[in-house]
Amino acid sequence: MRVAILDDYQGVARDLADWSQLPAGSDLTVFDRPLGDETAAAAALEPFDVLVIMRERTAFPASLVDRLPNLKLLVTTGARNNAVDLAACAARGIPVCGTRMVGTPTAELTWGLILALAKRIPAEERALREGHWQTGLTGDLAGKRLGLVGLGKLGTRVAQVGQAFGMEVAAWSPNLTDERAAAAGVTRVEKRDLFAASDVVSIHLVLSGRTRGVVGLAEISAMKPTAFLVNTSRAGLVDEAVLAHALRHGHIAGAGIDVFPIEPLPKDSLWLDLPNTVLTPHLGYVTRENYAVFYRDALEDILAWTAGSPVRLLSPG
Questions:
Q1: In what order do the strands lie in the sheet with 27-30?
Q2: Could you give the residue numbers annotated as active site?
Q3: By the 8 A CB rule, do 118 and 98 touch?
Q4: For residue 16, what is the DSSP state?
Q5: Which residue numbers delimit the D-isomer specific 2-hydroxyacid dehydrogenase catalytic domain (predicted)?
Q6: Which of 194, 207, 203, 182 is nearest to 261 (CA)?
């Protein structure tokens, strides 16, 4: 059995699970960089029976699945992966298995970005190294309003930290009720009011057909010129062109971005030249603790499948 682990950017996959447990005679290959376009990916992956993929780094549309005649099992880290065509896999009889996640690391990164923006940490750190001292004023978070677009597990955790900082917390999502918001100690508001009144807006929705572009011209135009926008969820939730324009022209104070339309970020990406941004390379889930669970579960998925009893199966729809 030939097994490949894809997109191991940090070079840690071999150390975080005991791959010696694979069936005798198995061959394990690890790819630590993106494979390129679909043709290059198909050529590199054609020999493998089992693929272990990291979240949404390499996409598996039907066109790629159909070019992998030897593929018998696909394992993705996490409990969902929008970049995998589950229907195409099902049509080929290829089971797709997921893994668990631990903690709320994305909520922690969200606060890293909020604090970096409010306290001007990257800008002041750079200035200090260049020989300058106190080049601008930072802002307090206490008494300010934190607006959350989405109040699920991650949004609720972000709300709790905001409350600990003494912030007033409001939230909106398509299905949020007054009762659910109140249970989290949060005020439910209408969408436009959230953007108009918040000092920090942080996005915590799952990307779907319903939520794609949920933050667009009307929402960003309503924001205060002193406000920050933070997105650690998915790039498709925000209209990239509208946000870029707002940042370039000072219509909002800044943005913290962890997710991008194309990843890894191309060297000519517009994001690299935008002012007043703190950018991170999709680090929300990239923790040692989470990766340990990812790879151990991935190994368990393979062993369960070889034993004829696959676990954590993902199904289309």
A1: 27-30, 2-5, 50-53, 73-76, 96-97
A2: 234, 263, 282
A3: no
A4: S
A5: 26-311
A6: 207
Residues with Cβ within 8 Å of 199's Cβ and at least 6 positions away in sequence, in order, are: 144, 145, 146, 224, 226, 227, 228
- CA 162, CA 169: separation in Å to the nearest integer? 7
Phi, psi of 35 (to 5 degrees): -90, -5
SS3 300: helix
Per-state percent for the chain, helix, strand, coil, to nearest 5: 35, 15, 50
Q: Which long-range contacts (CB under 8 A, 24 or more apart) does 165-174 make?
A: 165/141, 166/141, 166/142, 167/141, 167/142, 167/143, 167/200, 168/143, 168/144, 169/145, 170/145, 170/146, 170/194, 170/197, 170/198, 171/147, 172/147, 172/148, 173/149, 173/205, 174/210, 174/211
pLDDT 10s digits, 105-161: 999 999 999 999 999 999 999 999 999 999 999 999 999 999 999 999 999 999 999
Q: Are 264 and 245 in contact (CB under 8 A)?
A: no
CB count in 10 Å sphere of residue 276: 16
pLDDT (tens digit per residue) in 41-98: 999 999 999 999 998 899 999 999 999 999 999 999 999 999 999 999 999 999 999 9
The answer to whether residues 153 and 134 touch, using CB atoms and an 8 Å cutoff, is no
Query: E strand or H helix at 123, and its extent?
Result: helix 121-129
55: left (phi over 0), alpha (psi -120 to 50) or beta: left
Place of tokens 């071999």: 14
Domains within the chain, CATH numbers bracketed: 2-101+287-306 (3.40.50.720), 105-279 (3.40.50.720)
Residue partners of 213: CB distance under 8 A and separation at least 6: 236, 237, 238, 239
